[in-house]
């Protein structure tokens, strides 16, 4: 007899306390159920169930075997569900939170490419720099540009690094001068992102760290806006390299310093079966990021 079927029937009898009840539930005869249990007991050379005229109860060996059966059957069910999930088509609504540091143009480009590749997936994108509560707010996953991992119940999938540089427009440099050291920044107009820091910047030169407290002139909550302010000669700012790479009017300042990089991760809730649409987005976003940003 099929052992898996026998184990399933054993679990049902143990939970129902009756051969007849289980037989009625699956539209078969009590003798069919009894034969499977008897076959199990024969193979194990021990009695699993104690039968009486009124009910059926587990023996001590039966209790131990039941706990193992539940684990095994759950693993089988999980494996089957995962395989079915992987072979099914990617479809449905996918809710994703993305930080503004990716930039509106790059985000729109990424979304368009993803939608072209997966026409049966609908995207619901939130551009937000908060550490949103994925489960509470109903999001499938989020992109995080930070090394912080505030929630241990989430899965963090490393995507890559987003390098930053200190930049300004050529016109701003002509009008206000070029800084030669990190300390010179205290005399210039600085544009900062609201979630970037508390006004203290850390610079690295020859593996030596130098911290400088800078008073910002402008503080905003959008990397896209920071870029436009720099482009409009309003000050100095840290920007992701890919954002200004094709802008000849923006130049890098203090190249002797290592300005660092943000760690970019995809974060999603830990669950038994991750939906296909989430897997597809993870695969797509990693490839897109490596080509577009981390190159």
Automatic annotation (TrEMBL):
InterPro entries: LysR-type_TF_proteobact-type, LysR_HTH_N, LysR_subst-bd, WH-like_DNA-bd_sf, WH_DNA-bd_sf. The keyword Transcription applies. This is Putative HTH-type transcriptional regulator in ibpB-leuC intergenic region. It holds the Pfam family LysR_substrate. PANTHER family: HTH-TYPE TRANSCRIPTIONAL ACTIVATOR TTDR-RELATED, HTH-TYPE TRANSCRIPTIONAL REGULATOR. Belongs to the LysR transcriptional regulatory family. Residues 1-59 form the HTH lysR-type domain. GO terms for molecular function: DNA binding; DNA-binding transcription factor activity. Keywords: DNA-binding, Transcription, Transcription regulation.
């Amino acid at each position: 007899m099929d052992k898996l079927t026998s184990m399933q029937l054993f679990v049902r009898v143990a939970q129902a306390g009756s051969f007849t009840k289980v037989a009625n539930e699956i539209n078969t005869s009590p003798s069919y159920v009894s034969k499977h249990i008897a076959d199990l007991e024969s193979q194990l050379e021990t009695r699993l169930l104690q039968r009486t005229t009124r009910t059926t109860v587990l023996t001590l060996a039966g209790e131990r075997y039941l706990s193992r059966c539940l684990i095994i059957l759950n693993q089988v069910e999980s494996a089957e569900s995962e395989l079915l999930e992987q072979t099914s088509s990617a479809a449905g609504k996918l809710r994703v939170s993305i930080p503004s540091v990716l930039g509106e143009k790059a985000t729109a480009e990424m979304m368009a490419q993803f939608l072209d590749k997966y026409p049966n997936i609908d995207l619901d994108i939130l551009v937000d720099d908060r550490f949103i509560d994925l489960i509470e707010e109903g999001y499938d996953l989020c992109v995080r540009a930070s090394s912080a991992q505030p929630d241990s119940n989430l899965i963090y999938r490393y995507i890559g690094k987003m390098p930053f540089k200190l930049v300004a427009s050529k016109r701003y440099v002509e009008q206000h001068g070029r800084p030669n050291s990190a300390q010179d920044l205290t005399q210039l107009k600085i544009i900062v992102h609201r979630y970037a820091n508390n006004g203290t910047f850390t610079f690295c030169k020859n593996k030596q760290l130098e911290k400088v407290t800078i008073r910002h002139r402008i503080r905003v909550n959008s990397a896209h806006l920071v870029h436009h302010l720099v482009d409009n000669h309003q000050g100095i700012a840290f920007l992701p390299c890919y954002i200004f790479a094709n802008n000849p009017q923006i130049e890098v300042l203090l190249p002797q310093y290592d300005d660092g990089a943000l760690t970019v991760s995809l974060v999603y809730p830990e669950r038994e079966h991750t939906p296909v649409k989430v897997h597809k987005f993870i695969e797509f976003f990693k490839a897109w990021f490596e080509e577009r940003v981390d190159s």
